[in-house]
Design brief:
- By secondary structure, the chain is of the alpha/beta class.
- The protein is 40% helix and 16% strand.
- The protein is built from 13 helices and eight strands.
- It has an eight-stranded mixed β-sheet with strand order 4-3-5-1-6-7-2-8, sandwiched between helices.
- Helix 7 runs parallel beside helix 9.
- The N and C termini lie far apart (39 Å).
- It holds the Pfam family Phosphodiest.
- It comes from Polaribacter cellanae.
């Protein structure tokens, strides 16, 4: 009888104290890593940020334009455009590949997800999977999207939330690098601070453990106005984690000079690593048949 009571007590303790894992993916459109380093950003500084690349592998079937449409679909499917088939920003396309929302929901129907897309085309490009998402928005402004995400984190107990924020990219297209671009980064840092405050509240009061991932879709040209081409600056992105990454993630040296696109692709993190990282953290087994183009960034 004593052994049975001990077993029951231990089981209850495990249930009570085991933290529930959650993921917040914050997508920041068009933020150049080198420009981020020039601005005082206390909330960005809470992350371990590593240099990465987008645009597929140069000269292979996976090569894709460094534009938002193909890049966000890559981030949310874990594969390059040779698989997902989205080749431009046009909303008259639908991803041929399943998204992270599909993998989460079909693996565990009890998990709840949300997609808050300030640039509405993201959800349109993933139209086939949107019926699986428990909550979604298309369009609006960054502050509005941030408020929605904060409310969802605080009140709804969702398991995976993707939020896309757009103002930095707008500043780049309108003004290039300079004072207004830097100001947009400062404002973005405030938005991230609100999101971190919300996840910290859940961690403390609801026995949760939030992995927060920062990612950008593309870099920018030398003056900061445009993107789309296969140049080092336009292919350079970043991935940030609020937790320690695995040996591959931690080995990336942001200060090492990149002399070629080939070096960028070999020595930094592929954009395709975001989806497997989310699935790994949520304890969702990654199937070979999904043919994801990268491995997780956490152990």
């Amino acid at each position: 009888m004593k052994n049975i009571l001990l077993f029951i007590t231990l089981s209850i303790s495990t249930i009570t104290f085991s933290q529930k894992k959650k993921v917040l993916l914050v997508g920041i459109d068009g933020l150049q890593l080198e420009q981020l380093a020039k601005v005082n950003t206390p909330n960005f500084d809470k992350f371990n940020i590593k240099k990465g690349f987008n645009g597929g592998l140069l000269g292979t079937d996976s090569q894709q334009v460094t534009s938002s449409g193909p890049s966000w679909v890559t981030i949310l499917t874990g594969v390059w455009a040779d698989n997902h088939k989205v080749t431009s920003n046009s909303p008259n396309q639908v991803s041929a590949s399943k998204s992270v929302f599909n993998y989460i929901k079909t693996s565990n129907s009890n998990l709840k997800t949300a997609s808050i897309s300030t640039w509405k085309n993201i959800n349109l490009l993933l139209y086939k999977d949107m019926y699986l998402v428990d909550f979604s928005t298309q369009g609006g402004l960054d502050d509005y999207s941030t408020k929605i995400a904060v409310d969802l984190i605080g009140e709804k107990g969702l398991d995976f939330i993707f939020i896309h924020l757009d103002d930095v990219d707008h500043a780049g297209h309108a003004y290039g690098f300079g004072e207004k671009y830097s100001s947009s980064i400062l404002k973005m840092d405030e938005n991230i601070g609100q999101l971190l405050k919300a996840t910290a509240h859940r961690n403390k009061n609801f026995n949760e453990d939030w992995l927060v991932i920062l990612v950008t879709d593309h870099g920018r040209d030398a003056k900061g106005f445009g993107h789309g081409n296969q140049t080092i600056s336009e292919k350079t992105i970043f991935v940030g984690l609020n937790k320690k990454g695995n040996s591959f993630f931690e080995s990336v040296n942001n200060d090492k000079k990149i002399n070629s696109i080939q070096e960028l692709e070999k020595q930094t993190i592929p954009q395709t690593a975001v989806v497997p990282t989310i699935l790994k953290y949520l304890n969702i087994p990654i199937k070979n048949e999904w043919k994801l183009d990268a491995k997780p960034l956490i152990n």
